[in-house]
Amino acid sequence: MQIIAHRGASGAHPEHTIGAYEAAVAEGADGVECDIRLTADGHLICMHDRTLGRTTDGSGPVGAATLAQIRRLNAGTWERPQRVLEFDVFLEWAVANPGTGLFIETKHPVTTGLRTERVLRGRLRHFGLDDDPRTRIISFSSRSINAVGAMLPKLERIQLVKTPGARTAVQRYLGGPTAMGVDMYGARRDPMGMMSWDMPLYCWLAKTDVDVSYAKARGIDWLATDWPARARRALESMPKVGGFDAASAAAMAAGMNERDARDARAERAHHAADLIAAQDAVTAEAQGTPLGNLPLSERDTGLRPTDAVDFDRESLRPEDVTRTVAKPGTATGN
């Protein structure tokens, strides 16, 4: 299972900044995730929200601001201002870190239709990443996944869903993904439904050591977290419950085809997960050690006890908020 840094090492650094991505690599992340949105003049930037207010000292919709206007904003902290990360800068960083996997999420719905995907194709081609196996496109939009399949057929495409179910089957049919992604709640709510997809699995967001153990036991391939170093330690300290990794390797060595080997791994994974579940007295979360259990003074998040948290309620849950914006008027740095 690979550890993916969600918006970089965003638990301790401002999300979607070069500092967060550099920290992720230093902390042992196998890959990094970023969200992309279009500016008013057609440039891609790395930003999760539809609006600028939560993570910068600006305000208003991302799509209503030009790149020149966004370049004047601070996406860092008061003490260490940073510019909003342009997607081209992110790709330059990716080229300089060839061993790091890239998970690029297209954000929808947007008023520009599939323009994001068309610009994305052009930028990936420019940097030679349009046929790189470490580049993966992820989205909640089956239309986006389908379009990427036509525009960038050599790349893996991950359809994101909140939980397995009937709607998921429709999304798989419409999008034609090569892998599936589910959040931790959905993975816990219906693990059998998730594993019945028989596809590579991406899961977000690991917040405790038990989340890491659960994901490993259920055969998750890529696990996203805001705390890559702590997730890595939790993964490496996890006992080989059920021995499903060894079973999969032995099956492949015995000449079993890939699907049969995956089935063998899944059978062991079910057994391992059942053992883990049996140890949960109340819930897995209640027994887990928070990956982000750092004193506030040790976090480079810009958060202060007196700050009011502001976020886009349509695209974020309160628990996703880890920092507040820099004070208006703070000068930006490179």
TrEMBL record:
This is Glycerophosphodiester phosphodiesterase. Residues 310-322 have a biased composition (Basic and acidic residues). Residues 1-235 form the GP-PDE domain. It comes from Corynebacterium xerosis. Pfam families: GDPD. Coiled coil: none annotated. Residues 288-334 are annotated as: Disordered. One of its GO terms (biological process) is lipid metabolic process. One of its GO terms (molecular function) is phosphoric diester hydrolase activity. InterPro entries: GP_PDE_dom, PLC-like_Pdiesterase_TIM-brl. It comes from the Bacteria.
